[in-house]
Amino acid sequence: MRVILSTCSPGEADALLDAMLSERLVGCGNLIPGVRSRYFWEGEIQSDEEVVLLMETTDEKAAAAASRLRELHSYDVPKILTLEPASCEPAYLAWLAGATGGA
User: Fold this and answer.
1) Number of folded domains in the chain?
2) Which helix (H) or strand (E) holds 84?
3) Residue 79 carries which DSSP code?
4) Residue 95: phi, psi to the nearest 5?
């Protein structure tokens, strides 16, 4: 299992997650709204409202999911972190495999 973490503008969060789900690149996603992000960009400190996306996928689909998210994302340099949990409930892993079109 892999967890893909990203941030995006509030206006694109649902569309990004829906695309990832409909293409079966992820089996589940959480939208965490109301995040204020501060970062250094183009020589200045920026501040924006964002949504955190947490998406779950299989080991086999992780690279394709990250690549597709990069294509869909509106940011020039999107945050796309792929994390590997230390453990996961076997029944959840089985569900995730089915939800992403695996065995």
Assistant:
1) 1
2) none
3) -
4) -60, -45
pTM for the full predicted model: 0.94
CATH code: domain of residue 9: 3.30.70.120
pLDDT tens track, the chain, 103 positions: 999 999 999 999 999 999 999 999 999 999 999 999 999 999 999 999 999 999 999 999 999 999 999 999 999 999 999 999 999 999 999 999 999 997 5
Q: How many angstroms separate the CA atoms of 95 and 84, rounded?
A: 17
Please report, to the nearest 10 degrees, the dihedral formed by the alpha carbons of residues 94, 97, 102, 103 taken in order. 0
Domain that holds residue 70: 2-99
Strands 28-41 and 2-8, by their bridges, are unpaired
